[in-house]
Design brief:
about 260 residues; mainly beta; 14-stranded mixed beta sheet; twelve-stranded mixed beta sheet; 2 helices
Length: about 260
């Protein structure tokens, strides 16, 4: 195992298959290099707190910045730490990031990606593969992502736009879900308690839709093809086949139809 430690690090690393970043606060950026990239470039800057530890073992790069745990610091409340981490990796690198309040940006990765934060903002763009995103109060913004997307929030909002994902699962408690698809995935599942849900579909969408709310409102841009009651909106759009399910307790549900190209012109 190789170990590095410091307040400022600038490292070039070879034969890395997986990146695991764990910080409390600050910013984390993980982006794919060019198509021919084979090495990993890591830059770290500590803004507050102890040095960052970097370990490489069996192709796994672990970057960790945690508060020093001592009785004196616990009693004084001086647990604040903050660091900025930037990693440029080959696009096939498995990526895992965990923060407390730190913001996370990940772009261009085409492998398994797992991003978790408590109150930080998550931005994921141009990803492909199995993508898992989790936050408590931070927002999640997903742009142009393919593969399988699973986004979970408590009070944070989730926005998914563009791309051609195969499956999408979006869940929130009080956060809002906003989905705007270029191509409708094979299966979409949206669930909230009190958060509103808005879905915009392409003009040529082929979808079997069911939306249910207990006490929220239902609105649709497809009044000619969808059956609507006080609590349920269902029916086949186009030829159907792909599945869109929305369920909420008190949130409002809006299903919109994107304008055709001729209408935009």
């Amino acid at each position: 195992m190789t170990h590095h430690e410091g307040d400022r690090l600038d490292l070039e690393l070879e034969e890395i298959a997986e990146v695991d970043v764990r910080i409390v606060a600050g910013e984390v950026s993980v982006t794919a290099g060019g198509r021919e990239a084979t090495s990993v470039r890591l830059e770290v800057e500590v803004l507050r707190g102890p040095p960052v530890g970097v370990d490489v073992h069996d192709g796994v790069l672990v970057v960790e910045h945690q508060p020093l745990r001592s009785i004196t610091r616990l009693l004084s409340g001086e647990m604040g730490v903050r660091a900025n981490v930037s990693v440029i990796v080959p696009e096939g690198t498995e990526t895992r990031v965990r923060t407390v309040s730190g913001d996370v940006f990940v772009g261009g990765i085409r492998s398994v990606t797992s991003l978790t934060t408590v109150s930080g903002r998550i931005t994921a763009t141009g990803l492909d593969g199995e993508v898992g995103l989790r936050t408590v109060s931070g927002d999640i913004d997903v742009q142009g992502v393919d593969g399988t997307v699973r986004a979970n929030a408590v009070s944070g909002d989730v926005t998914i736009s563009g791309g051609a994902p195969a499956e999408v699962t979006a869940r929130a408690v009080s956060g809002e879900l906003t989905l705007d698809f270029d191509e409708v995935p094979d299966a979409v599942e949206c669930t909230t308690v009190s958060g509103d849900v808005a879905v915009r579909l392409p003009a040529d969408a082929d979808v079997d839709l069911e939306a249910v709310t207990v006490s929220g409102r239902l609105e649709s841009g497809y009044p000619d093809v969808l059956d609507s009651s006080k609590r349920r909106l269902s029916g086949r759009i186009g030829e159907g086949g792909r599945r869109l399910s929305v369920r909420t307790t008190s949130g409002d549900v809006t299903v919109l139809r994107r304008a055709t190209a001729s209408a935009d012109a």
